Amino acid sequence: MKLEKIRINGFGKISEKNIGFGKNLNIIYGSNESGKSTIQTFIKAMLFGLGKNRIVGIPEKERYKPWNSKVYGGSLEYTLDNLRRFSVWRDFTSNQTKLYDSECKDITDEYDKSKTGGILFAQEHLGVNAALFESTCFVSQLGIRLDSDGEALITDRITNMIEAGSENISYIKAVKIIEKALVEEVGTDRTSERPINRVIESIKHLEKERANCAKVLQNIRTLEEERKELKKDEMILIQETAGADALYKAKKVERQYNSIQMSDRRVEELKINLEQRETELKVIADNIPLGSAVFDDDVANQLSDLKLLIRKLGFKFKNLLGCGMGILIYVLGSVVVMKEVLLVNMILSAISVMTILIGFGLYYRPLVKAKSEIGEILTAGSVNSASEYFDKKKEIMFLLEKKRIIEESAALLRNQLESISRENETETAIDLCNTDMNMKEIQNELLGELKDMNSYELEQYSKEKKYQLHETELRIIEIETEIKVLSSQVIKLPEIEEQLERDRQEKKKLEEFAWCLVKAKEILDESNHQLKSNIIPGLSNKLSNIAYDLTGKYSNIKADVGGQGIKIILEDGNVISPDLLSGGTIDQIYFALRVAGLDMLSENGELLPLILDEPFSQFDDNRIKITAGILNSISKKNQVIIFTCRQNEVDIIKNEIPNAQIIKI
Asked: What digits encode the pLDDT tens for the residues 153-188?
């Protein structure tokens, strides 16, 4: 694969920029902060899109938004080893990607899409994904930096490259992370407080609660069966009680009916007696005078009081009148005898006259009034004297008493007639009884058993059945109360089932996650094994050759010696670790390892470019010169693009490789 040209419309600080690349070695030269790293990211983004990686906490898509352009994107042209030429265009704002062939034909839809909608053309063309492309083809600026921390960083990256095929991935750390995740995020049989342990305990607890609910439900079903049977018994008892009551009622009605039938003549006699009484009442009513109210006890008492008053007033008036007349006669006699009128006689005469006048005022007038009132009463009663009044009163009182007695007798006769004259109602009651006895077959059979019982026996039988019915109803109420109480205990059963299902799903997810972790570890182990068996030997040979060309003395480097990355075997047979070497030598071995990896990756696939960012920052001029020779050899097969800010590096490489293309930004 050869990168031909890039067009940056807007990406970070760079906008409206065109860069063309040579097929062999290219040097992109520019001062610090001129955008070299931005161009590298743009190349990766055009092939694989912007990832979700964060740089200083900022997502790539946010970090590389254009500073001075409204258009966020650009294009890249490249040619594969089979000489097929392609052009890719991307708009990072709308996440649109278009791929064109050499004839400008849109072939975007011919390639698969990722879950996020990206076009997977680069994977198909290059045979590697974004991670492998970056770990193999790109040697970043930090990759060869050397300081007290950088030295350990580089040796770690070398170890990672040997163990996992990527400098950013440690096989041992990955295994430890998987094992830690398996313990902490899932749990094992030997843990107790991890997610899988908690969910298993929850499932056990919920299953126990569900089992208890199942027992309660079984109790409820048993009670419901008992209630069902009791309901049947209740219906039978209701029918038995109703049958006995109906038969008892029928017998009672029958007795009443027979009694009425036997009393027909009595009814006729009562009617005749009632007619006689009513005739007598009419005669008596005719004999009682219209003004009979004057003979009431109040009027009679008033008449008696008036007679007594007249007697008293007459007596007093006669006495007072006699006294006055006596005095008057005495005065007149004195005058005749003595033939003179004395003062005493005059006074006595005056007293006599006054006495007579007082008698008339006090007694005579009330006496006349009382006699007048008596006369009014006698006139109203059509009698001439008080004795005649009282005789007539006795006669009227006798008639009234007789009338009252006859009226009571007539009322009694009417009541008797009303109580025994219910023939129509009796027939209706018997019809009702017959209707009640027209029940279901079981009730007809029951009536057949009860028909020989007398009324008392039927009444006792009915009481017994009603008692049984009452007890049955009470038991039904008890059962329904028990069912209600038990139902409250299983009301959470749906929640238990839902939570149990959630826990089982969670357990399944954890088990699947655990399976994935175990599988991932197995794959890592197998990949590591395959790496050691099939790749590491060849990689060790290539690494040794390139390292020797670079250093001139380290020609026997073994990769993955006991899982420790690489070991260097000296000429005297001693084995040392890379971290014992100088910083520059470590950089050279790291560079050799990346070149060896790229060479192995290109053996059976596309010849991928090698892109280096400030690769010689720790090299002296001699090492730069030696490395330039190696790069020149590499660029005959793989395109090489070097990003640098150092003019002396450009000059040294240009002297060593005259046909190198210099691109200044």
From this structure: 444 545 555 554 555 556 778 888 888 888 988 998
Instruction: Work out the burial of residue 635: count CB atoms within 10 Å of its CB; fewer than 13 is exposed, 13-18 middle, 19 or more buried.
Output: buried
Last residue of a domain, which of 425, 440, 455? 425
Higher pLDDT pick, 9 / 570: 9
C-alpha closest to that of 421 among 276, 273, 264: 264
Q: pLDDT above 70 covers what percent of the chain?
A: 75
- The answer to whether the Cα torsion of 554, 560, 562, 565 is positive or negative is positive
Structural domain ending residue among the three candidates 399, 425, 451: 425
Q: Which residues contact 118 (CB under 8 A, 6 or more apart)?
A: 48, 49, 95, 97
Q: Which ranges in 490-572 belong to alpha helices (H)? A: 493-530, 536-551
| Side-chain-side CA neighbours of residue 43 (13 Å) | 24
Share of the chain above pLDDT 90, in %: 31
Q: What is the DSSP letter of 190?
A: T
- pLDDT per residue over 323-354, tens digit each? 666 666 766 666 556 555 556 656 766 666 66
Radius of gyration of the chain (CA): 69
Could you tell me the two tokens for 640? 């090489």
* Contact call for residues 540 and 557 (beta carbons, < 8 A): yes
CA 652 to mean position of chain CA atoms: 77
Helix (H, G, I), strand (E, B) or coil at 661: strand
What's the Cα-to-Cα distance from 264 to each of 108, 256, 270, 349, 428, rounded to whole Å? 118, 13, 10, 92, 19
User: 556 with 545: CB under 8 angstroms?
Assistant: no
Measured over the CA atoms of residue 170, residue 172, residue 175 and residue 177, the dihedral's sign is: negative
Structure tokens at 595: 């070149």
Our count of domains for the chain comes to 2
Q: How many other CB atoms are there within 10 angstroms of residue 216's CB atom? A: 17
The answer to whether residue 458 is domain-embedded is no
Sheet holding 2-11, edge to edge: 14-20, 2-11, 73-79, 85-91, 96-101
pLDDT in tens, 420-462: 665 545 544 444 444 444 444 444 555 556 667 887 887 888 8
Strand ranges for 255-310 from DSSP E:
none
Residue 20 inside a domain? The answer is yes
DSSP result, 29-73: E--TTSSHHHHHHHHHHHHH---S-EETTEEHHHHT--SS-S--E
Strands of the sheet containing 661-664, edge to edge, are 138-139, 610-613, 640-644, 25-29, 661-664
Residue 576 β-bridge partners: 568
Phi then psi dihedrals of residue 645, to 5 deg: -115, 5
Burial (CB count within 10 angstroms: exposed 0-12, middle 13-18, buried 19+), residue 372: exposed
Domain housing 109 = 1-127+605-665
Tokens standing for residue 461: 């039988």
Residue 282 lies in a domain: yes
Q: Is residue 1 part of a domain?
A: yes
Question: Helix crossing, 195-262 with 493-530: angle to 10°?
Answer: 160
